[in-house]
TrEMBL record:
Keywords of the record: ATP-binding, Cell inner membrane, Cell membrane, Membrane, Nucleotide-binding, Nucleotidyltransferase, Transferase, Transmembrane, Transmembrane helix
UniProt subunit comment: Probably a homodimer.
Protein name according to UniProt: Diadenylate cyclase
Gene: dacA
Species, as recorded: Saprospira grandis (strain Lewin)
NCBIfam families associated with the record: diadenylate cyclase CdaA
Transmembrane annotation, as ranges: 6-22, 29-47, 53-74
Chain coiled-coil ranges: none
UniProt lineage: Bacteria, Pseudomonadati, Bacteroidota, Saprospiria, Saprospirales
Domain called DAC: residue spans: 75-244
UniProt superkingdom: Bacteria
Length: 256
């Protein structure tokens, strides 16, 4: 049998897609369903090869409606995957990476200033146990979420962020979204993740951070009102209790 270059490309693409499906379903109930479907498929293939017509035709019924069943069972995951593809992930990150980010010395200094302001405010809120949820948009289209909050279009500063999340401020509830060099909106309502693997101790603020990062390529920082811990969520995963230094490094990696 001849193995061509296209066979290799084919295998690499299928491998990549399977890995993405694994990443998407990891830790969810959907992963067990997916394993169940793979098991049914292997069983059907086995009984067909062994020549067991009755069992093979019963299992064959499942397999023949497989694609439709997959779309119904995994509707939220398929939606999330398509959103991820469409929402600036490719435009914003991949293309930028391919073309190389343009970053002059002046721009670098500006970004460093922004990072310092965000980190300073977050650190102060953590010390004072002021709850906060800050999204850093790295190229997604978040128009639908802006409209759920209050548009600001203001220059980023630690004072502004501290004012927004001050518990007496009318803007402190919900998420504040930062894009480029501006605080675009505050008090935004985000989708709350319903993934079963999330620890019970995490409430709505943390679940909203996980939820939005499942659907869009944004970075979400959370300050817990209860513990004063800083956490971040990215691609649906949460990293808890990070230091201000970790936060600074992460922002540098993402924004530069
Ligand atoms: N869908 C949502 N989108 C954005 N923000 C939300 C959403 N739901 C709740 N919040 C924010 O989370 C706050 C409630 O947080 P809650 O105490 O339930 O979460 P938590 O994860 O336990 O955080 P903490 O550790 O700060 O208590 C609300 O006051 C609101 O500001």
């Amino acid at each position: 049998m001849d193995v061509t270059l296209w066979d290799l490309v084919d295998i690499i693409i299928v491998g990549y897609l399977l890995f993405q499906i694994y990443k998407l379903l990891k830790g969810s109930l959907g992963f067990n369903i997916f394993l169940g479907l793979v098991f049914v498929y292997i069983l059907w293939w086995l009984v067909s090869a062994l020549g067991m017509p009755l069992l093979s035709s019963i299992l064959g019924q499942f397999v023949s409606v497989g694609m439709i069943a997959l779309l119904i069972l995994f509707q939220p995951e398929v939606r999330r995957f398509l959103l991820f593809l469409g929402q600036g992930y490719l435009q914003g990150q991949l293309i930028e990476r391919l073309l190389g980010k343009k970053s002059g010395a002046q721009e670098d200094a500006q970004i460093e200033l922004i990072i310092r302001e965000i980190t300073r405010a977050t650190e102060e809120m953590a010390q004072e146990k002021t709850g906060a949820l800050i999204l850093i948009n790295t190229g997604a289209s978040l128009d639908g979420y802006y409209s759920s909050g209050v548009m600001l279009g203001a220059k980023i500063s630690s004072q502004l962020l501290l004012s927004i999340f001050n518990k007496y401020s009318p803007l402190h509830d919900g998420a504040t979204i930062i894009s480029g060099q501006e605080v675009i909106a505050a008090s935004c309502v985000l989708p709350v993740s319903d993934r079963p693997g999330i620890p019970q101790s995490l409430g709505l603020r943390h679940r909203a951070a996980i939820g939005i990062t499942e659907e869009t390529p944004v970075l979400a920082f959370i300050v817990s009102e209860e513990t004063g811990h800083i956490s971040y969520a990215r691609q649906g995963n949460i990293q808890r209790n990070i230091s201000a230094e970790d936060m600074h490094k992460l922002l540098r990696r993402v924004l530069r």
